[in-house]
Amino acid sequence: MSFQVKEPILVIGLGGVGSKLAKEAKNVLDADCLTISNDKKDFSSDNSSIHISTGSVINPSIPLIRGSTYKVADEIKSKISGHSTVILMSNLAGKAGSAMAPVISEMCKEAETGLVSFAVMPFKYEKDRIFNSGISLKRVRENSECTVVLDNDALLESNPDLSPKACYEIANSAMMHVVKSLGSSEISNETHVLSTSKNSENMEDSLRDSLKMLYDNAPPNSVKRSMLYVVGGSDIPVGVINSITNITSGIVSQSNSQIDMSSSEESKVVMLSSIQGMTKFDNYDPLGMIPQEDTLDWSTPECSIDSELDFYQLE
Predict the structure, then answer these.
(1) What is the pLDDT of residues 70-79, one digit of tens each?
(2) Per CATH, the architecture of 2-215 is what?
(3) Which of 58, 178, 161 is nearest to 120 (CA)?
């Protein structure tokens, strides 16, 4: 079943990375934009914004940011109201994205607003962020019509010579290619893994790097459908395009693969693959294997709130 993107569209960016992506997506889709963050430095004067205040706490925890987000729930819901589709941009490796993404996606679900979520996962060496990103992604997937996941760690594994900054730039570019296609291409109501490569003169090498990145996230038999974005395709020989098609059809059935070509100064392949079954992200939460119906605290994510109670010391 395919998800239909309907206007009016609201792009929501969470935290620093999410806000940057939302601003780009806003221009691509000619949509409304809302940035939400606990840091006012992430805001710009040309977009609506909501500040999540954590009081006097300088380095707030994820539960505290999440609890503070619930305090401004009515303001966020009023911004969502009146829109048919919300596109949520979040970096689940960051505190703000990991804290707020489950809350905002929950609000969209309650409002019965169509939600497409883009989530960026952390590098393997960011060990303190892996668990929180995993449980946040699980909740976002439950609340979204469809979820697009890009794994920074898999991108770095396929391109070990890249710096983290270069990985971010490649990842952001790949997500924008998918955003551009939302108005013209169908996207299924499933979890999608986004894979790509650095710029390459050899498109077959770029495709293989994208496949390597994909299979680092999910087993081959879980890939049900793939959309290939051949970036710079208008300048690529037809024979090369045909070769890419043949390689892809040998992995994904011919009827379930599609190629979209776009003009760009870049030259690479971006793959958007729908996944059915387990991904490596399910292992980020050690308790993730417990069925939802057997999970006691599923309805509300962990958060910290100020109870405003005075406790006096007893002597």
Answers:
(1) 999 999 999 9
(2) 3-Layer(aba) Sandwich (3.40)
(3) 178
